[in-house]
Design brief:
The complex is a heterodimer of chains A (253) and B (369). Chain A is built from 9 helices and 10 strands. Chain A is an alpha/beta fold. In chain A, the strands form 2 sheets. A 6-stranded mixed sheet of chain A has the order 6-7-8-3-9-10, sandwiched between helices. In chain A, strand 4 and strand 5 (68-69) form a beta hairpin. Chain B is mainly α and 369 residues long. The chains are: A alpha/beta (253), B mainly alpha (369). At the A-B interface, helix 2 and helix 3 of A face helix 1 and helix 7 of B.
Chain lengths: 253, 369
């Protein structure tokens, strides 16, 4: 695929006990795309991401990020990607601005802490400690940390799990603005409406394999073409729409 | 350029971890207040006994001018600490509770002139089974005193006499000796218990896992963590040292800088063990037993609490190779015997060997999650 920044080819992960977590997945992600990986728990989403990120050994197959082989040069891949792991935790007892400085230093660079905190709407929290942040604030800070070295590709592993609807929508806006700056985003999620509004293309994974890959609209069309009939009457609005209408879009924290 | 970046990253990590340490009340308690409490307990035990003293009660049943003068003299003796009680039954009760070591009783007629016209009499020293040695020592001190008085009174110089002289020119106190052990214990605590309590908790929370997503290497992390802990260790040792000098009159006969440097080396070595255990363990369940396994032999066999020279010879040879032994031995040799770095060759060799081995192991078995 031309213009692709990430190529994954027949990627497999088998653990020492013989368990095959990822059974050969292949896909490519275009520069600047928001790419979603969907699937139930245990489908192999996180394992797939960790192999691409250079955090886990690859059993077979290849993953190349901007031309760098993640299996051979995990350290070089780490230089050009930003990673927000599923459970974001930071050293306690150090301020947000101090953490940002230290994380930038790990890439050998310096960072304008107030600019990056403003970007994730935490400008007033420079002297706060991460253990005192709300769930949404922590996720936004975690994304700020992943951006300190201006990565080419940003990996977000279930970024909105556990957030209230306001915080979730707020994070979608943030992801869109990062994408608008030309950063390629690869994310996993459990929330289908999230994938539908945010992702340019999605891969559906189950039992270690990709079982569908296309843009959300095309996937829905294909489903309808197969003769799918919704179980319930299509609602003009959802309960979430009601909730947002009643409580407003403003973020609470 | 790569080297510059390596140290830039490591330095930033060191600053971050040092800040975290200095803001943690628990960490500060264990690194500064706790050793100080230990220091005061030990100092109270050893520091007051600057030379030996015996607690005695003096019962004067004679009430002669000579006996009263004699009681006054005993009170002035540094070797005696005289209990104010004047009743024999009270004194016996005190002795039963080990609050005094012996009772000096001056019976009726003590100090009255004898047939030759000299003041005479027999002082009685009472002691119980628990204080037999103290009682006998008190008796011989009194005997020696009487011998001098007798000579003065009778003006006859005895032909044979005994003179005692101390060979410890530097005047080492028990505290001077105990302090180096306490310092060793403190290094052990800081070096081992710090990392084995902290690292598994950071793994559990995922804070270490997050660092792993960056190009930071485990070696950089270990160096930064060691450096930040050694900053804290230096602070702890500095405070202990200052209190020991000011409050307990601790004296270093050797080079002070060498003493400090040697303590620092000891801290780096001990930290390697903590890092190996804490860096390997996934959780507290793994860290605690392994930490005890590593630290217990050092705590009891390396001369921290009781000197190794009291052990059988074969055990002395064996325990010389326990990592903390050369640390405690070396500190003692510098502070009490004014030894130089060259004299400490064997100790440095053992420490160096352990240091290389344990840091290689620590880096190899380190786990981020």
């Amino acid at each position: 695929m031309s213009g692709a920044i990430l190529h994954v080819k027949d990627l497999k992960k088998e653990y020492a006990d013989g368990f095959e977590a990822v059974k050969g997945v292949s896909f490519s992600v275009k520069q600047g795309e928001i790419f979603g990986i969907l699937g139930p728990n245990g489908a192999g989403k996180t394992t797939t991401l960790e192999m691409i990120e250079g955090l886990r050994d690859i059993t077979s197959g290849t993953a190349t990020v901007d031309g760098i082989d993640a299996g051979k040069y995990p350290e070089r891949v780490k230089e050009i990607i930003g990673v927000q792991p599923q459970s974001s935790a930071f050293l306690d007892g150090v301020k947000l601005k101090e953490l940002l400085v230290a994380f930038a230093a790990m890439y050998g660079s310096r960072v304008d802490t107030s600019a990056i905190l403003d970007k994730v709407e935490l400008g007033s929290k420079a002297d706060a400690y991460p253990e005192h942040l709300s769930g949404g604030q922590r996720q936004r800070f975690s994304i700020a940390v992943a951006l300190v070295h201006q990565p080419k590709v940003l990996f977000l592993d279930e970024p909105t799990t556990g957030l209230d609807p306001q915080a979730r929508r707020n994070l979608w806006d943030l992801v869109r603005s990062i994408s608008d700056e030309g950063v390629t985003v690869i994310m996993t999620t459990h929330y289908m409406e999230e994938a539908q509004v945010l992702c340019d293309r999605v891969a559906v994974m189950d039992e270690g394999k990709i079982i569908a890959l296309d843009n959300p609209t095309a996937l829905i069309k294909a489903l309808l073409k197969r003769g799918f009939k919704p179980h319930v009457e299509v609602q003009a609005a959802t309960l979430e729409d009601v909730f947002i209408d009643l409580t407003g879009k403003a973020i609470r924290e | 350029m790569r080297i510059k970046r390596y140290f830039f990253t490591t330095w930033a990590m060191t600053v971050l971890l040092t800040r975290r340490y200095m803001r943690s009340k628990t960490a500060l308690f264990f690194s500064i207040l706790f050793p100080l409490i230990l220091l005061f307990v030990f100092g109270g035990l050893f520091g007051s006994s600057n030379g030996t003293t015996f607690k005695v009660a003096v019962i004067d049943d004679a009430h002669t001018s000579f006996s009263q003068q004699y009681v006054g003299q005993i009170s002035k003796e540094k070797v005696f600490k005289v209990n104010p009680t004047t009743s024999l039954s009270d004194a016996k009760e005190l002795m039963q509770k080990s609050e005094i070591d012996a009772i000096i009783q001056l019976p009726k007629g003590f100090g009255e002139p004898n047939a030759s016209g000299y003041p005479s009499g027999q002082a009685i020293v009472l002691y119980d089974q628990n204080s037999a040695t103290a009682g006998q020592t008190v008796a011989s001190i009194l005997g020696a005193g009487f011998a001098v008085t007798n000579t003065q009174i009778t003006r006859i110089t005895p032909p044979l006499t005994v003179v005692t002289k101390s060979t410890e020119q530097s005047g080492l106190t028990a505290f001077d000796y105990a302090f180096t052990g306490l310092l060793g214990f403190s290094l052990l605590g800081l070096g081992i218990f710090g990392p084995i309590n902290t690292l598994p908790a950071l793994k559990k929370s995922g804070a270490l896992g997050r660092l792993r997503t960056t190009p930071l290497t485990s070696m950089q992390f270990i160096i930064a963590y060691a450096a930040s802990s050694i900053v804290a260790g230096a602070l702890s040792i500095g405070v202990m040292f200052a209190v020991a000098v000011v409050v307990f009159h601790f004296r270093v006969n050797g080079n002070l800088l060498l003493f400090a440097l040697y303590a620092l080396l000891g801290a780096i070595l001990m930290f390697g063990f903590g890092m190996a255990v804490g860096g390997w363990a996934n959780d507290e369940k793994q860290a605690a037993p392994l930490g005890n396994l590593v630290s217990f032999p050092m705590m009891f066999l390396s001369g921290v609490f009781f000197p190794r020279f009291l052990m059988p010879i074969w055990l002395q040879h064996l325990t010389a190779f326990i990592p903390l032994s050369p640390v405690v031995d070396g500190l003692r040799m510098i502070s009490t015997q004014n030894k130089s770095l060259l004299d400490l060759g064997p100790q440095l060799a053992i420490m160096g060997g352990w240091m290389i081995a344990i840091y290689i192991i620590a880096i190899m078995i380190f786990r981020w999650e």
